[in-house]
Fold:
Amino acid sequence: MRSLLLSLSSLLILSACATSGGAGGGGAKTGGGAKTGGGKAMAQTPADVATMTNVEKIMHLQGGKAGPALALLKKQPASYTPEQIEMMKSAAKYVVAIGARLEDAMFEKKFDGGFKMFATQLKSEGTKLGGAAAGGKAEEITTALKGLAATCKGCHAKYQKH
Structure:
């Protein structure tokens, strides 16, 4: 449990960095997609993720979209509000799109097959989160969030720059 909370703390830091526009001047804006320093939208919709070519920017978008959902794990509520469920449904769509894009991350030529495995797992966990959020059952949502957090933690342990 402690390692899960530490992982969530890392994700929250990434999310805060992405939301505030840190780490390179651009970040994920929860209302309008990722923005570059110049204000040009990079991903207004999950479908736009397919056009992104910078893994760091993709990961900042991930933090901005999935971070708030993962932050709910700290509270482990008995139920989620309709607003939280809608936020998780939206986050899940981005997570699936990001996983699909990262499966093809060889465009940066610095990742191995292990990275693709994590990307595939990310896509799967995003699908699970979307299904759980659609069902609205807190226990299933929490399980899906834990699976997503574990995938993020595993990938970050191997690939994130420290």
Q: What stands out?
A: The domain at 2-159 is CATH 1.20.120 (Four Helix Bundle (Hemerythrin (Met), subunit A)).
